[in-house]
Amino acid sequence: MSAQKMIDGYPFVSYSHETYDAPGMISHASSFLTWMDKRRTVRDFADTPVPREVIADIIRTANTAPSGAHKQPWTFCAVQQPDIKKIIREEAEKEEYRSYNSRMSPEWLDDLKPLQTDWHKPFLEVAPWLIIMFKRIYEVEENGRKRNNYYVQESAGIAAGFLLAAIHNAGLVALTHTPSPMNFLGDILNRPENEKPFLLVPVGYPAAECWVPDIHRKPLEDVAVFY
Prior knowledge:
Elements: E1 4-7, E2 10-13, H1 22-36, H2 52-62, E3 74-79, H3 82-103, H4 106-112, H5 123-126, E4 129-136, E5 138-140, E6 146-148, H6 152-169, E7 173-174, H7 183-188, E8 195-204, H8 220-223
Antiparallel strand pairs: 1-2, 3-4, 4-8, 5-6, 7-8
Helix pairs in contact: 2-6
């Protein structure tokens, strides 16, 4: 049992973390990089069922992410029901059709060509689960008073990263889908006013025939500066 003490009236517990010597650290960091580098965004899903408890643990993992003042300003809605997934696909495709045909600039559309995406989103029905992440802008107390959350966008972004890593760790694949605007998700799922859609993530197994673009990540020298 962890030791506990009070600091300025608030409880704290002792903490320790497994550490490694330099060779062990290099090995662990390298193997994790190799494993994470295998993660790909997938649009070809199998309809093979995924146990609910697996999705629950994936969400629990995302919920371990740090957040501003530890407010944990997020709600994860996990959708398995085919009828709800069908409605979500229909509404998402309406927005995506408008985006591809009038909202996106020619430059944006040209940048998307290597990915070969369009407004059709069948994966929203094929994938066994959709995880819709909502960011909670504020909380509502029992007396109706609104209490702001802090660094909501940043906190939600970190939790989304944890979510994707957990999905990859479970041997599943995902897609980060952001139809714009996404307000229809709050309406379909009957979410309260303090929650705004942040990310729509289909989750499942890759299809037997699954294709991903032959693209490559930027090298370290293009994304990092050491001082």
